Amino acid sequence: MAQAAVSCRVRRLVLASSLHAVSGMPDQTQARVGDPPRPGNLYGATKAWAEAIGAWVAATTPTSVVALRIGYFAPQPPDAETVPAREISAWLSPRDAAEVVRAAVEAVGFNFVIANGISANRYCRADLKETMHQLGYRPIDDAWRSP
User: Fold this and answer.
1) Considering its fold, how many domains does the chain have in total?
2) Is residue 68 situated within a structural domain?
3) Which bin fits 74, alpha (ψ -120 to 50), beta or left (φ > 0)?
4) Each residue of 92-110: b (16+ CB within 10 Å) or e?
5) In the predicted structure, residue 64 carries a pLDDT above the cut 80
6) What distance in Å separates the CA atoms of residue 14 and residue 68, rounded to the nearest whole number?
7) What is the mean pLDDT of residues 120-124?
8) For residue 15, which of 22, 67, 68, 135 is within the disulfide window of CB 3.0 to 4.6 Å?
9) pLDDT in tens, 77-96
């Protein structure tokens, strides 16, 4: 996929990474975009590998890359009765997902960026400051906000 994007002279490649790339961090630690990969499972390791490919593409070709560490994507906020707080704090709503992808495509001024893709949850599993700064991403939804 990355080679095909480069061959087609794509300006920006947006990779679907995952917060699983850093899921091996302690529960009480908030994930930051500058954190090195620390996968907690094989799926997370494959996402860390995809980020490495993205870094390689950005360093060796004219194609810039955004690796989106996507959180818990679901149409509705997760139910606190059945879903652990760690996952609720990583929720990404459909509206915010569309916004972070738009921001990833349109942002300028970099070759390679890792960005956290979650909503504006009251308690955030992943820090959004750098993602908001680099991409101009402005999430709206909050998993803990009453409907």
Assistant:
1) 1
2) yes
3) beta
4) bbeebbebbbebbeebeee
5) yes
6) 7
7) 93
8) 67
9) 999 889 888 899 999 999 99
User: Residue 34: what are its φ and ψ, rounded to 5°?
Assistant: -85, -5
25 neighbors 63 (Cβ within 8 angstroms): no
3-class SS of residue 147: coil
CB atoms inside a 10 Å sphere around CB 138: 12
CATH code for position 115: 3.40.50.720
pTM of the model: 0.93
**Bridge-partner residues for 12, per DSSP?**
64
Q: Does residue 112 sit within a domain?
A: yes
Residue 113 domain-assigned (yes or no): yes
Using only C-alpha atoms, the chain has a radius of gyration, in whole angstroms, of 15
